[in-house]
Specification:
- It is rod-shaped, with a radius of gyration of 20 Å.
- The protein is mainly alpha-helical.
- Helix content is about 80%, strand content about 0%.
């Protein structure tokens, strides 16, 4: 990876975070309108838990991506930076 890859990756994380948060808000609203202990409420509760789990992984994915970019920049500069 190169340093130029940082902006598109950062933008991807922003869009993913917004999409997950809006999706969770919608699923939460749908769940609140369902009858307690119904199949529909259980499904929407599981969906909300799944979105929360996915959201919990965003910091880890961002850290791994940032590390890959830093390692890529270092390897590129040592391998191709000298004439």
């Amino acid at each position: 990876m190169r340093l130029q890859d940082l902006m598109p990756v950062a933008l991807l994380f922003v869009v993913a975070t917004i999409a997950i948060s809006i999706g969770a808000d919608i699923v939460g609203s749908v769940r609140d309108d369902q009858t307690a202990n119904s199949y529909e409420r259980n499904v929407s509760t599981n969906g909300l838990e799944g979105l929360a789990e996915l959201g919990d992984w965003i910091p880890t994915l961002a850290l791994v991506t940032a590390a890959a970019i830093v390692i890529g920049v270092l390897v590129y500069s040592f391998a191709f930076g000298r004439n």
